[in-house]
Amino acid sequence: MGVDAERECWEMRSGAGVGPLQFGMSPAEVVQALLVPGPQESAGGPYAQEDFPGGVKAFYDAGKLACVALDAVTGPQVFLSGFPLAGSDLEQGQQFLLDHAAEHGNCLLYTPDDSLSLTDIGVLLRAQQVGAARLTRPLFVKEEWLESEYFRDHLPLEGA
Question: 23 with 39: CB under 8 angstroms?
Answer without folding.
Answer: no
